[in-house]
Amino acid sequence: MSPNTARKPGWFRPKGFLIPFIFAGLVVFYVSFFADYHLKKQVEKYASLVNGAVVNIGSLKTSLLRGEVHVRDVQIAHHTHPNRNLIEIESIEIRFLWLPLLSGKLVSPRVRIAGIHLFTARDSFGGLTFDPDGPALPPGILDRVATGLYEPLRKELGDTPLRKLGLLSTGLGTQARVDQMLAQLGTTKRIAEIEKEIKTQTAQWEKKTYQPESWLESAKDSLADIADKSPRQLAELRPSLENWKKKLLVEREDANATHQQVLTLAENYRARLMKLDQLVSEDVSLVRNSLGLPLLDGSDFTHALLGPKLLNSIERVGYWIDVSRRRMPTTEDDSDGVVLMERVTDRGSEIVFGKKSTYPSALLMSIQFASETGADAHQGKVVGELKNFTTDPPIWKKPTTLELEGDFPGIGIRHIKLNAAIDHTSSVPEEKLLLSVDAFPLTDWTLENTPDLKLKVAKADAKVNFEGFFVGNDVSTQWTILASHVEYGVETRFKLMQEALTAAFVPFSSLYASGLVRGKPEALKFELTSNIGKKLGGVLRDTFRHSLAAVDDNIRQNILDQIEFPRRRIREQLVESVSRMTDKYNAYNRTLDEVQQSIQSLSGKKKSVRQARS
Amino acid sequence: MPMLKPIFTLFDLIRLESSPLQVSLAILLGAFFAVTPILTPQFALAFVVLCVVRLNLLATLASYCFFTILTIPLQNFFGHIGRHLLVLTPTLRRLWAGLYHWPIFPFTEFNNTIVLGSAVVFTVISIPLFLTSYFLYRIYAPGVFLRIQQSRAGLSLRASLFFRRYLDHVSKHGA
User: Fold this and answer.
1) Alpha helices in A291-301 (DSSP H)
2) Å from B104 to nearest chain A CA?
3) Number of Cβ pairs closer than 8 Å across A and B?
4) Does the N terminus or the C terminus of chain A have fewer Cβ atoms within 10 A?
5) pLDDT for position A434
6) CA A266/CA A259 separation, integer angstroms
7) Chain B interface, mutation test: which of A98, A106, A353, A363, most B Cβ atoms within 10 Å?
8) Which residues of chain B have a CB within 8 Å of the CB of A14?
9) Residue B133 scores a pLDDT above 80
10) CA dihedral over A596, A600, A603, A605, signed as positive or negative
11) With a CB-CB cutoff of 8 Å, which residues 102-161 of chain B face chain A?
12) Does the distance separating the beta carbons of A351 and B51 come in below 8 Å?
């Protein structure tokens, strides 16, 4: 393989320079013709994942030499209404600095956003289709909900009893449910307790009580056949007589006390068996709750109507807070004037070293919103500024702030005011969000949508106010919604209910609802009030009062039927045990009497001998 | 014959740069490629070196494959070393912070725990690796080549038409 003809060339291969040059040419070719398209696709993909609905970009052009990026026609789909865009932006102009780019930092002194449209129709469906091979984002708050973090709240707010109104209207048999829940009922548990106690008690009674003690047995034997005993034998017995007398007295008292105790306990068990009827009411509630029937004695149905919406809002806000905290992390390490931040990647961790007077990895110093109303009714006037938007707040040391005001007269939205602040500069993250809209049209706002009842606000003029403060794990939010000229839409398959609800809601033209949520995610406290919840409660109570009472009676009767047989059986067992104990007591007493008589007769004999001697 | 020319050129590249120094440096470069992320300046620089300097390509490729497989289970170890240097050594912190804000330097990904850890390990083992491969190649390579030539496969290859054509190519081009 190594022929001797091989000559020794020098160390360098001049033609080898061609290969890096070819590579460099390919890179320039790629950047010139394909990089923008790939960047656009990547941005669309990532933004869609974060938004939870599709984000489309019309065009994206970068000019590295001029330090500019032009983005046109950005459409951000609404996550719950995927046929509409939440926001559509005509143009975004981003300027970036060259020098930080050489250090791998994207620093933009100014971003200008113009031509903002709200709620425009989409050409294509904006829902996200699940891509199992797609990049996985770290679990967000929605995922944590699935793991049970908000489970109690979800259960409380999400499980609306109005789903089961149909059961009341059609009537329902409760026998099967009572049978199914028998083991969980308080009465059944109590019966089992009493039965167990009686069994234990009876066994104890049988074992220990009314058993003649050794002295009594010996006394009985010694005193038997006194008449046949010699005077000497009698004289030997005499010293024990006083002792036996005392013991006999004590024994009789003990036997009486024990018997009294047996009778008292038996009476106690009888009383407890009788008291079972009081527990039945609790069991009725238990069975009724398990059936999911609405508690019409509670006059406010706000939780049932607005609870799921509140939960969705909490989750959505929580999700964005979580995204901001993951993408703009805080740090606790700030020694030697160097701020240390760690980003976990799929290959090791990336450590970011922040210093004073240096730029963070990505920074948008000022994003200016400047949109004017146009020919399109969905386009509105928006003025405001987002400042200090950065991936490394502890390095930049300035909180991100947003101040925005907008008007969309074409679609009836007046005076949107949005103030937000994200302060992740210290170790405890803080976020603030204040939003108010003075007027907006509320159309087809579904309050309840079950097979039994559909209730919605078909049309209304509304205003809303929201305040939210998030500090570390603490959440504090409150909101109010006021609507006038409200037209309600009521639909139910039960004629009685349809008539009652129509009569109640057609002339009702206002809507007021407010709520607040406070606490930590694992134990959130919330309050909800609304005039519509009270109104609905009143109507349902009047309509279904008799039906619900009938259901309660039905359940009660079924439970009573179920407990009657074991109760009677226990009572009979008790009577039998007491009677057996009484027999034993009487027999024991007879033994004691016999011994006492013998002692008395011996004492009498002694007395007569003494008299004869004298 | 023209169709075989690229293959013969490749054979030349593999055959010609076969001095112990060229082979051991090629092994070192292969190990460097194995521990360095692709889209970094140091990787590009090493690639230019590979193109321009006459090193044994086969040895580079073999070394790259070997060390890539070898380092897969050592990622956590590299990560620990990198973390120790980047995070747990306060005296070095100002140095890293300075380098982090230099132009171009952040693209080396030195602030990644695994990249820094593997780079440090490579630096530590580079001289022993170079010396070991140099002397092993020098001592054992002639014997190994001779044995290959005299083996049945080597003899049948030498007797093949392909090898005769290659010898013609060598004598003609003097390579």
Assistant:
1) none
2) 5
3) 108
4) C
5) 95
6) 11
7) A353
8) 52
9) yes
10) negative
11) 102-107, 109, 111-115, 117, 145, 148-149
12) no
Tokens for A503, please give them.
């009569």
A445: its two tokens: 């706002």
Contact A13 B111 (CB under 8 A): no
CA atoms of A315 and A322, how far apart (whole Å)? 10
**What is the predicted ipTM?**
0.77
Residue entry with tokens 């039945």? A280
B163 falls within a domain: no
* A353 to B102: CB separation less than 8 angstroms, yes or no: no
For residue A354, the chain B residues in CB contact (below 8 A) are 97
The distance of A16 to chain B (nearest Cα, Å) reads 5
Cβ contact (<8 Å) for A353 and B111? yes
Report residue A176 as tokens: 């099967």
Chain B residues in contact with A11 by the CB 8 A cut-off are 53-54
* B32 assigned to some structural domain: yes
From chain A, the residues in CB contact with B147 under 8 A are none
- Residue B175 within a domain: no
User: Quick one: how far is CA A560 from the chain centroid?
Assistant: 35
Looking at beta carbons, which residues of chain A come within 8 Å of B167?
Answer: 3
- Number of domains comprising chain B: 1
Residue A460, φ and ψ in degrees, nearest 5? -170, 160
Measured between alpha carbons, how far is A219 from A599 in angstroms, rounded to an integer? 9
Instruction: Give backbone dihedrals phi and psi of A402, rounded to 5 degrees, phi first.
Output: -135, 130
Point out the residue among A1, A350, A358 whose CB comes nearest to the CB of B145.
Answer: A1
pLDDT tens-digit readout, B95-125: 888 888 888 888 999 999 999 999 999 999 9
Judge contact between A551 and A288, C-beta under 8 A. Answer: yes
Beta strands in A472-510 (DSSP E): 474-492
Query: What sections of B1-112 are H helices per DSSP?
Result: 5-16, 20-35, 41-52, 57-71, 75-86, 90-100
Q: Are A72 and A58 in contact (CB under 8 A)?
A: yes
Q: Say if CB A363 and CB A107 are below 8 A apart.
A: yes
Distance from CA of B98 to the nearest CA of A (A): 8
Confidence of residue A2 (pLDDT cuts 50, 70, 90): very low
pLDDT of the residue at A58: 93
- CA gap A301, A415 in Å, rounded: 31
- For chain A, the maximum distance between any two Cα atoms, rounded to a whole number of angstroms, is 161
pLDDT in tens, A473-494: 888 999 999 999 999 888 887 7
Residue B127 belongs to a domain:
yes
Residues in chain B: 175
| Chain A residues touching B171 at Cβ < 8 A | 5
Please give the Cα distance from A551 to A177 (Å, whole number).
12
Angle between helices A214-223 and A231-290 (to 10 degrees): 140
Give the span between the Cα atoms of A486 and A471, in whole angstroms. Answer: 37
Phi-psi category of A216—alpha, beta or left, where left has phi over 0 and alpha has psi -120 to 50? Answer: alpha
Domain span holding position B38: 2-141
Query: Which residue in chain B is spatially nearest to A15 when comparing CA positions?
Result: B52
Contacts of B18 in chain A (CB under 8 A): 2
